Structures are given as structure tokens and as C-alpha cells.
Amino acid sequence: MKKESPYHYSEFTDPISCDFTTSNVAGNVDFHMHNSHEIYLLVDGHIQYFVENACYDMNPGSLILFSNREIHKAINTSNEPFTRLVIHVNPSYIRPYCTPLTNLLDCFHRDPGKNNLVLLSQADHELLISMAKNLEKAIKNRRPYGSDLTALTTIIQILILINQAWQNTGSVKTAPRPHRAQTIMNYIDDHLTEHLTLDSISLALSLDKYYLSHLFKSETESSIFQYIVVKRVALAKELLLKGHTVSEACHLSGFIDYSNFIRTFRQTTGCTPGQFKRLNP
């Protein structure tokens, strides 16, 4: 089950989910993050996918991965319908089934925005589609005998396949493409904890602030402010996981106002910073 937020977050309350969807818009049109890891296979159509400050052109058969640390968003530049397979996995559900030789979550343990795209052979692509259909059926038909174990064993097999493909994928062939907003994103990433305004960014980059804002919006279909906010919350999550207090995470992630930090963190992650610390000791 997915709980929608009015901001930039979708909370998945079930340990795994699997859906094939066809539409002409993405499920979440803004930069966002999840409490789960995400496997995204484009079955049909053509879209662009932003993850952190990188942009990937995706074609049928393209597979991209997002950890619960990475902000991302899809853009459909053609406005034509596209079909995607989306699988969400709660890492705490999978972790007990990892072994010293087989870390099923290895493909998600990367630096944010690095090596997200995975190349699949035709055989692996067909096998993934087949297993995903079985997984979707097992999740939706919870009552029949064995459906729970079918779902568990199928997601384990899917993760094994994806990790093998991820390990065999060369970083050169899946490098993100350059995009016009990248300089802006890079500056924001490098100065995220500083006091950032449209005026300060435009001054630093020697660009008119109205042109800067329009450029970012036209390229990403999101605002500069929205990108900054979600990046700062992602940083605050990392700080909390490393043992920092809520107050420390607030100021070290670039937030000035404590009340605004609490409110924004909750809108972006589905819980308050304090709740997040208690859930992730």
C-alpha cells in the first residue's frame, strides 16, 4: 500500500510492491524520495529520468535503480503514453535473506547518483518481466496457499538477477547525458549547507536570475527551490543516521528555521526527524 503525501514523498507500508503501469505522466512529478529501494524498468516508450544531478535517457528495456537515499523524478518529453514496471523493496524486509556471499541489496549501496542505469540482455529482460508478473500476482492474491512464499522467493530471484546485471554493466555505456541544468545542480550540491537564494546562485554563476529559474524549470520541470529542499532533507536523513541530533541535522543540512525543518522533513519523508531517528537506531 502506498500513502501519498502532498509534498515529495510516497510511503510504502508493505515490504514489497510490484506494478505495471501505462500513462503519459509519471507517478510523482517532482523530485522525491522513498522509504524503500526502487527498481524501475521502462517497458515501452521514451522518457528522461533525473536522479540526483544526473539525467538518463531511457528507452524500452532500460532499467534504473534508486536507493532510499536518492532523489529522483521522471520526465515524459513526448507526452506519449509509456509503460513501466516499478518494484519497491523495503531493505529491512530483504536484509535477513542476505548472506556473506550474496548481498541482495548490493546494487543499492552506491554513492547517490552513480551507476544507476543497468544494461539487461534480451534474455534477462524477458526473465525479469516474467518474474515480475508472477510477483505482482502473488502480492495481489494474498489469500491462496503459498502466495506469501511465492512473493518472497520471487523478489529474491529478481534481486539476484538485477545484481548480476548491475555488476556486469560498464559505467561508460550507462553514463548520464549532459544537461543544461547540471551546472546549477552542481553549484547547489557543492553549497547545499550555505544560505542559498535565487539571487546568490545567479550571482555566483553570472546568470540572470529569471533566466536561471526558467532554464532549471524548462529542463527539469521542477523549481530550483524544490530541488534544494529535497536535497537538504536527504542530507538531514544521512546526518541523523550517523548519530547527529535533530537540532544538529537541521543546521548542518542548511536549514535555518527549526520549525520549518521539522515541517519540511515530515512532508518529505513521511515522519518527523525524531521519529526517523527512533525508527533507524
TrEMBL record:
What the entry lists under SMART domains is as follows: HTH_ARAC (SM00342)
Q: Where is the HTH araC/xylS-type domain?
A: 182-279
PROSITE patterns found in the cross-reference section: HTH_ARAC_FAMILY_1 (PS00041), HTH_ARAC_FAMILY_2 (PS01124)
Question: InterPro entries under this entry?
Answer: AraC-bd, Homeodomain-like_sf, HTH-like, HTH_AraC, HTH_AraC-typ_CS, RmlC-like_jellyroll
The record ties this protein, via Pfam families, to: AraC_binding, HTH_18
Q: Which GO terms describe its molecular function?
A: DNA-binding transcription factor activity; sequence-specific DNA binding
Q: Which UniProt keywords apply?
A: DNA-binding, Transcription, Transcription regulation
This one is known as AraC family transcriptional regulator
Q: Which organism is it from?
A: Lacrimispora amygdalina
